[in-house]
Amino acid sequence: MRLFVSDDAAAVACGADAVAARADALGAEVVRTSSWGLHWLEPLVEIETDDGRIGYGPVAAADVDALLAGELEQRRIGDIASHPFIRRQTRLTFARAGRTRPLSLDDYAATGGWAGLEQARAIGPEAIVQQVTTSGLRGRGGAGFPAGIKWETARRAAGPRKYIVCNADEGDSGTFADRMLMEGDPFCLIEGMAIAGLAVGADKGFVYIRSEYPHAIAKMEAAVRLCAHLVAPFEIEVRVGAGAYVCGEETSLLNSLEGKRGEVRVKPPLPAIEGLFGRPTVVNNVLTLAAVPWILANGGPAYADFGSGRSRGTMPVQLAGNIRHAGLFETAFGLTLGELVHDIGGGTASGRPVKAVQVGGPLGAYFPPSLFDTVLDYEAFAARDGLVGHAGIVVFDDTVDMARQARFAFEFCAAESCGKCTPCRLGSVRGYETMARVLAGEDAAANLALIEELCETMTFGSLCALGGLTPYPVLSAIRHFPEDFAR
Amino acid sequence: MCSWQGLDSAVTDANAQLDAIIAAHQGREGPLLPILHEVQRAFGCIPEDAIRHIAHALNLSRAEVSGVVGFYHDFRRAPEPLPVIKLCRAEACQARGSDALARWAEEAAAGRVAIETVYCLGLCSVGPSAMVGSEVHARLDPAALDQLIERAA
């Protein structure tokens, strides 16, 4: 009997290794694949049958004996590929999720792998950048900057040595798509980086992965070794962060790669002109680079056919926190927040009413259900003082205290500030203290007025997004949930 | 402060090990973080003596190396005397009750295990989550956390 079990860290954290070991001990052939992203069903086990793979989940190690004996029908999910959660998605970047073995070059090539790189080699730098520009692809790390413009800037920059840096410092709570991509389809990221290298004339790439992702680090290191001959002369090195959220900001990431304190740099100069070691550098998020092979293989216009407004293509949305159907949902821009949380996510896992969702990580705004008609689209979110960010959606039920969440936003900023600029370094601490006073019921109105002023200073005076965007969760909590601040 | 000073032979061994680590990475672009990671893996911390040694080898000042060690949460100047469980306290895990779980963990650990806060393990769809070494654990409740603590202690 042949079984498929994911080796994605989320599956492993839910016990997938023990499930695989038990099945193996019972004589089944266990194939470790990437995760489909239906995380509420992990560990998900698929059994190969004459009618294709049939999924069961969640399966604990103690259930495996019954499963193999055909006695776990109550956990039968059926064909995962035709599960509504999968069928409603548009999987371009995550097309292989759940289907292939992450480190199998055969599986990768058999599912269209390297077609983008081949095309890139055939058409050359200018045409590559043209395709990426036409696709409308924007930075998936959070800033949403057009990838084509960044690449064109680096392509035109002079210099015998240039770099491609992949930002895999995915520190935003509620996000895990970078991790899933690196663990599940590492060659796709490598292919994207190699294409970027061709486009701008760089022969060296770095993948900067946070240290909290040991599984992703291991997979990427193995994948880089396995396919070195296929991307040569382009070379990739995996580098490991050291527990600093701010290194997800591109200029502090570059400092960290150089072996310095991960402090933010003042821009300009833009990294595309003067980046790593002072040389032209393209810094892109994992999902941005991983979208590129599809774009090259299918053409920029095909990618741009998906989406809404100026947000083209697809976004791997991450449904997280207190949500029933938690997992990865890749979709064209254009769904509403309400559709994502209720129709697809199934509401809260606790069964209580949804009170708030935070979109875009710890620097993203909190949205109340009254704003659930907001469309997933960079501009639509900005228009409501929020951000799509890395598209993590964290759901909270009605037991959450939004004043505490606002205080946490300052606490997090204080813990992770690099210290370079005063509004962030001091503002976060003063904000925390002031919000603590509000929580204690000390002159809430006056203290909230002070916080509004402080937030203005942080927004306009901070060097990077950490200090600059911390006001988003704070002010959105105050604005949309005033009852939690009247104490 | 973590140090290998004491026995002469121990100093010689540690210096040789350190030299080997530096030599393995010195040719790389931006070698400092890879060196610090490996030193910490080998010694359990970044000893003061190592900072001097690395600074000399990379032609940096001790202040520069020390500043880097101090900047990153991962690097320790002294070894952690207790086994460590890193419990995620970021928003997605908060939404699944990690604050209450952290209070429970402190009590259950009773000073035998260090319960450290980590902000996000990328397991936000299956929280609350924790990491022990490079092992990950999700959907934690008090019972599962108790087991982790007893195993680590």
From TrEMBL, chain A:
Q: Which GO terms describe its molecular function?
A: 4 iron, 4 sulfur cluster binding; FMN binding; metal ion binding; NADH dehydrogenase (ubiquinone) activity
Give the UniProt keywords, A-Z: 4Fe-4S, Iron, Iron-sulfur, Metal-binding
Its cofactor is: FMN
Q: Which Pfam families match?
A: Complex1_51K (PF01512), NADH_4Fe-4S (PF10589)
Tell me which residues make up the NADH-ubiquinone oxidoreductase 51kDa subunit iron-sulphur binding domain. 403-448
Instruction: Check the record and name the Gene3D superfamilies matching this protein.
Output: 3.10.20.600, 6.10.250.1450, NADH-ubiquinone oxidoreductase 51kDa subunit, NADH-ubiquinone oxidoreductase 51kDa subunit, iron-sulphur binding domain
Q: Which InterPro entries match?
A: NADH-UbQ_OxRdtase_51kDa_CS (IPR001949), Nuo51_FMN-bd (IPR011538), Nuo51_FMN-bd_sf (IPR037225), Nuop51_4Fe4S-bd (IPR019575), Nuop51_4Fe4S-bd_sf (IPR037207)
Superkingdom as given in the UniProt entry? Bacteria
What protein family does this chain belong to? Belongs to the complex I 51 kDa subunit family.
Write the protein's name: Formate dehydrogenase
Classification from the root reads: Bacteria, Pseudomonadati, Pseudomonadota, Alphaproteobacteria, Sphingomonadales
TrEMBL record, chain B:
Q: Does the keyword Kinase apply?
A: no
InterPro entries per record: NADP_DH_HndA-like, NuoE-like, NuoE_N, Thioredoxin-like_sf
Name any one Pfam family assigned in the record. 2Fe-2S_thioredx
What cofactor is needed? [2Fe-2S] cluster
Q: Which GO terms describe its molecular function?
A: 2 iron, 2 sulfur cluster binding; metal ion binding; oxidoreductase activity
**Key words, A-Z:** 2Fe-2S, Iron, Iron-sulfur, Metal-binding
Q: How is the cofactor bound?
A: Binds 1 [2Fe-2S] cluster.
Name the family the entry cites. Answer: Belongs to the complex I 24 kDa subunit family.
Name by which UniProt lists this protein: NADH-quinone oxidoreductase subunit E
Native source organism of the sequence = Sphingomonas horti
